[in-house]
């Protein structure tokens, strides 16, 4: 369970993704489930209330017993991985790991898990220029495409005010899971991220919002004399140690408001810190997802 800094030092995103996926011991959904599918799996005795159309009448005629044909139902997903690439994602924690770098590791692990289950992962990078899209596919070449895109993504600027470029995210392809990784720095009513979440909810499918934070954002663990700069606006603020209690209160209020806003859209919400080993974070996310899918 290496931390993010150690995994990044390996300099091999495909290897890191495989290690994380192998250690997760869970998937995005149960691989198969029993039901009225197309591929026969087994018989089970009839119970009152069962659908009579699934009775095997030939077997009943031979054995004078009633059995239902059960099949494996295809549960494969279209997995849409959405990365916030605005400038605030360049924030670095005490170990030197940026939120963007941590998000790369987490999304690479999710993509690897998705392919292992036969799902179709795709990547959507939301930055100042709009939406960069690698459409979901289940072929063997998809992971290299996703890993290259993740490795070459940089964070800069503000998210575009016009969310019209998010069109590819708003069309469903069968069973769909959308995972949004962001620090939700600009989650205000009518702000780009808020509008995007509203649209995703309206489009249907499952949506999981992963709120990524660095520990030093929570503790304000900086020297007494420090100047803080907003990575998106360039605004600077001189840090006064006496302001820390007020900062903590405002931060906790903002975190509550952010979670309430996201859950208010009807979306699943989970908060992650960059000092947590990415494999542990991946396993936690997958287990939450497994629980939601049952």
Automatic annotation (TrEMBL):
Origin: domain of life: Bacteria
DUF58 domain segment(s): 42-249
Protein name according to UniProt: DUF58 domain-containing protein
Protein's organism: Hymenobacter edaphi
